[in-house]
Amino acid sequence: MYERHILICAGTGCISSGTISVKDALENELKKHNLQDKVRIILSGCHGFCEKGPIFIVYPEDIFYCEVQAEDVPELVEEYLIKGNVVERLLYKDPTTDMAITSHDEIPFYSRQKRQVLRNCGVIDPESIDEYIIRGGYVGLENALKMDRMGIINEVKSSGLRGRGGAGFPTGMKWEFAYRSPGDKKYVVCNADEGDPGAFMDRSVLEGDPHAVLEGLIIAGLAIGSDEAYIYVRAEYPLAIQRLKTAITQAEEYGVLGENILNSGANFKINIKEGAGAFVCGEETALLASIEGERGMPRPRPPFPAVKGLWEKPTCINNVETLANIPLILRKGAAWYSTVGTESSKGTKIFALTGKVNNTGLCEVPMGISLREIVFDIGGGIRDGKKYKAVQIGGPSGGCIPEDLLDLPVDFDSLTAAGAMMGSGGMVVMDEDTCMVDLARYFLSFTQSESCGKCTPCREGTKRMLEILQRITKGKGEPEDIPRLEQLAAAVKDSSLCGLGQTAPNPVLTTLRYFRDEYEAHIFDRRCPAGVCKELLSYYIDSELCTGCRACVRVCPTDAISGERKEPHTIDETKCISCGACFDRCRFDAVKTK
Amino acid sequence: MIGSNTTETHPVIGYRIKMAKNKGASLIVADPRRIDLVDYADVFLQLRPGTNEALLNGIIHVIIKEGLADKKFIREKTEGYIQMSLAIQKYTPEYVERITGVSAAKIRHAARLYAGAESAAILYTMGLTQHIKGTNSVLAVANLAMVSGNIGKPHSGVNPLRGQNNVQGACDMGALPNVLTGYQRVEDRGVLSKFRRAWGTKLNSKPGLTVTEIIDGILRDEIKTLYVMGENPALSDANLHHVLEALEKIDFLVVQDIFLTETAFYADVVLPAAAFAEKQGTFTNTERRVQMVRQAVTPPGKAKPDWFILQELAAKLNLNWSFDTPEKIFREIASVTPDYAGITYERLEKEGGLQWPCPTEKHPGTSYLHKGKFSRGKGLFTPVEYRPSAEEPDEQYPLILTTGRTLFHYHTGTMTRRSDSIDVHKPEEMVQISIDDAARLGINEGDMVGVTSRRGHVTARATVTEQVPAGVVFMTFHFHEAAANLLTINEVDPVAKIPEFKVCAVKVEKIEA
Amino acid sequence: MISLTINGQKVEVEPGTTILQAAEKLGVFIPSFCYDPDLTLVGACRMCVVEVERARNLIASCCTPAGEGMVVHTDTERVHEARRANLNLLLANHPLDCLTCEKTGNCRLQDYCYLYGISETDFSGERKDYGFDDSNPFFIRDMNKCILCGLCVRTCHEINGVGAVGFMNRGFDTKVSAAFDDPLEDSPCVFCGMCVDVCPVGALVPKQSVGKGRPWELATVKTVCPYCGTGCGLELSVKDNEIVGVKGDTSSPVNRGQTCVKGRFGLGFLQSPERLTSPLIRKNGELVESSWEEALNLVAQKLRRTRSTELAGLASARATNEENYLFQKLLRTLGTNNIDHCARL
Ligand SMILES: Cc1cc2nc3c(=O)[nH]c(=O)nc-3n(C[C@H](O)[C@H](O)[C@H](O)COP(=O)(O)O)c2cc1C
Ligand code: SF4
Ligand code: SF4
Ligand code: SF4
Ligand code: FES
Question: Model pTM?
Answer without folding.
Answer: 0.87
